[in-house]
Design goal:
alpha/beta, Rossmann fold, about 30% helix, six-stranded mixed beta sheet, globular
Length: about 425
């Protein structure tokens, strides 16, 4: 088995791994790089030529993967629906099948509607937890993992008598922590190579050290209960609509405090689309839930043929006068800092207004609307978040359970730290090939 990490050996984001055995080639993830030297504002309609996209490093240099080339890759596997793992999938040749979980497929199709992402034209084939499949010389077994993206998968890849375990992104402190513990208690054996994500390594430095995240999703729920119990004005919570664990925590806190949870149309549509994943996933028509319509969301749903959803959701709509009148009992969720000014300017006063930031702190740069508003009005930002990634202690537990012959850093800005905590570490460079 031959391994090439095209991107991710020294950065978080843009993950892409190529594996080859005999005449078979597969790719694990095709992610968009995070903002920085490699910009993320590329689409299939990018003005750059294919050769320029590859030469600039925006696209990994993988022969036979892209729509303008003769297909030479046998399959692409996407671990989960975060753009830094699938964001370049729209460039894949239509004749190359894409394997992904049901939740990942649903979110990618939602993003085509709401985020104007280029569609993935390839045939989408579904992965299921622990169901082994074969592609040429490879056998692949997906493992459901706990992560802030729903239905995320780690991948066991076997070929030529060798076994590689790709962690994808994972953690052991969310509402699906049982999936992580299941891997620890019944791990795949005889792992030759572990590709281990290390997003959280190094984050203890600087501001994160003095203001750490909450340790798990249950502690997030408890803090939200505390905030809602004491509030006298609107509580406005900024979080990802695709972080289902966070939506569940918010809804549970609302029920425990006899509050009202107000979501937007996009969030309501996400919850409905992902309802097959769990009967416990709250829905827009449940007790304690209402929907705030925004014109942009409604137009996108109508334009994509979802008028029936709009008609059904309309029965649970809350208009601004009612929202203002009942603001002391409302937790309102928004994922967009762009909507933040539209909401706050409608409030008659800001006395007792609670601003809850429930995402990674790095997104709060200080110059976006939330920070500026809070500085201007002398309001505190309540940070209520737990990471979507495993801390060091859980990464060590995973490595100890798998006992790989070799551990290779990926999805990390600090590959050199691995040698301090894991045995048999082998650091690669982007584009370097390793024979396993």
């Amino acid at each position: 088995m031959r391994l090439t990490i095209h991107r991710g050996t020294r950065e978080i984001g843009g993950s892409c791994v190529e594996l080859a055995s005999g005449a078979t080639r597969i790719v694990l993830d095709l992610g968009m790089p995070l903002p920085g030297p490699k910009k993320t504002n590329i689409t299939k309609e990018s003005p750059l030529s294919p050769s320029d996209l590859i030469a600039s490093g925006l696209l990994p240099n993988i022969r036979g993967l892209y729509a303008w080339d003769n297909p030479g890759v046998d399959a692409v596997f996407l671990s989960h629906a975060h753009r830094d793992h699938y964001g370049l999938a729209g460039f894949i040749h239509p004749r190359i099948p894409v394997y992904l979980s049901a939740g990942t497929r649903a979110l990618m199709e939602l993003n085509e509607i709401f985020m104007a992402e280029p569609p993935v034209l390839s045939e989408k084939r579904l992965l299921a937890d622990r169901e082994r499949l074969e592609v040429g010389d490879f056998a692949i077994t997906p493992y459901l993992v706990d992560h802030s993206a729903p239905d995320a998968m780690a991948l066991l890849v076997e070929a030529g008598g060798k076994r590689l375990f790709y962690s994808g992104d994972l953690r052991g402190h969310g509402r699906k922590r049982g999936s992580f513990e299941r891997i620890l208690h019944n791990p795949p054996r005889n792992i030759d190579c572990l590709l281990l994500e290390g997003t959280a390594l190094g984050r203890s430095q600087g501001v994160e050290e003095s203001r750490p995240d909450f340790p798990d999703e249950q502690s997030v729920e408890e803090e939200l209960v505390s905030l809602l119990s004491a509030k006298t004005n609107l509580a406005l919570m900024l979080c990802s609509s695709q972080n289902l664990d966070r939506l569940v925590s918010a809804y549970r806190a609302v029920l425990r405090t006899n509050s009202l949870m107000v979501i937007d149309l996009y969030t309501a549509f996400v919850l409905q689309a992902l309802s097959p994943l769990s009967p416990r996933l709250p829905q827009y028509h449940w007790r304690g839930m209402r929907i705030k319509y925004w014109k942009n969301h409604a137009e996108k749903l109508a334009g994509s043929g979802h008028q029936d959803f709009l008609y059904a959701a309309n029965k649970h709509k809350i208009k601004m006068p009612e929202l203002i009148a009942r603001r002391a009992e409302i937790l309102m969720l928004t994922r967009s800092a762009g909507l933040f000014p539209l909401i706050t300017r409608s409030l008659p006063d800001y006395n007792g207004l609670k601003i809850v930031w429930s995402m990674w702190r790095g997104y709060l740069t200080g110059e976006e609307p939330v920070s500026k508003f809070c500085r201007k009005n002398n309001l505190e930002i309540n940070f209520v978040h737990t990471s979507g990634h495993a801390p060091l202690k859980d990464l060590k537990r995973l490595a100890e359970a798998l006992q790989p012959h070799k551990t290779i850093p990926i999805h990390t800005g600090f590959p050199h730290l691995y040698r301090d905590f894991f045995p048999n570490v082998h650091c690669l460079e982007d584009g370097e090939e390793l024979s396993i």
